[in-house]
Amino acid sequence: MSVVLSQLEDHKLWFPDPDSALEEPNGLLAIGGDLSPERLLLAYQNGIFPWHGPHHPILWWSPDPRCLLDPTEFHISKSLRKRIKQRDFTITLNYGFNQVVEGCAAPRLDTDETWINAALKHSYAILHQQGLAHSVEVWMDGVLTGGLYGIALGQIFCGESMFSMQSNCSKLALLALCQHFSEHGGKMIDCQMQTSHLGSLGAKEWPRDQFLVMLRQLQTQPVSAPCWQPQRIEI
After folding, report:
1. How far apart are CA 168 and CA 163, in angstroms?
2. Which of 50, 136, 193, 200 has the smallest C-beta neighbourhood within 10 Å, fewest atoms?
């Protein structure tokens, strides 16, 4: 039986039911549309996220299973614990959102390509201005050496990307997010797709239907007011 992906149009803001996503490639749901802040927010609210290569059509995904991290279950490895004891870093929240996005968009060692294009950068910047997108930064001697960013929907944080210029800096950022988010009432971090790296940090796979039920519940529940105010984070 042939499967036809839903084709999205720029002028119509909608997504198909995530349950209609393909099994192979896992979670591919729709193609096209735009990367406007409004569409991105609607996607996250429905358990959908964009991911595509440069110079390719926009692809939208909702994989099954889903990778989730309970912020109270972050695993601190021996190497990370040793890194924390060095205390040669500063961690902040929402001090350098655009810098973090640029760091995540920079070419990696294994590829010159990036999926975080100019349109995404622009939309995430707008969502940040609206108080919906947030970043955690790791600084060493005043230089940004790692961080992460994502979208906050009530008590769930939808992680988008992270980067590290020094050993364990992205892990420091994620640990700081977990501790801070949990302290302010956050319940879950969406990591999208499971990897061995995320698994080593405590992330687990959930069936998509269970994730979507939880998403609908948690995004209606607020965290405490000071949670996303710019501030230093101690770990």
Report:
1. 10
2. 200
pTM above 0.90?
Answer: yes
Q: Is the same domain home to 80 and 36?
A: no
Output the DSSP codes for 145-169: EEEEEEEEETTEEEEEEEEESSTTH
Q: Is residue 17 part of a domain?
A: yes
DSSP string for 172-229:
HHHHHHHHHHHHTT--EEEEES--HHHHHTT-EEE-HHHHHHHHHHHTTSPPPGGGGS
Q: How many domains does the chain have?
A: 2
- Residue 1 has what pLDDT? 41
Helix (H, G, I), strand (E, B) or coil at 71: helix
Is the domain of 179 the same as that of 92? yes
Which CATH number characterizes residue 48's domain?
3.30.70.3550
Residue 1 lies in a domain: no
* Tally of residues, the chain: 235
Assess whether pLDDT exceeds 60 at residue 110. Answer: no
Q: Give yes or no: residues 33 and 134 share one domain.
A: no
Q: What is the domain range of residue 21?
A: 6-63
Share of residues in the chain with pLDDT > 90 (%) = 91
Residue 79 and residue 59 share a domain: no
pLDDT higher than 60, residue 48: yes
Whether 13 has a pLDDT exceeding 70, the answer reads yes
- pLDDT, one tens digit per residue, over 69-100 is 999 999 999 999 999 999 999 999 999 999 99
Regarding whether 152 and 138 lie in a shared domain, the answer is: yes
Q: For residue 47, what are its two tokens?
A: 């358990």
Nearest CA among 168, 195, 229 for reference residue 69 = 195
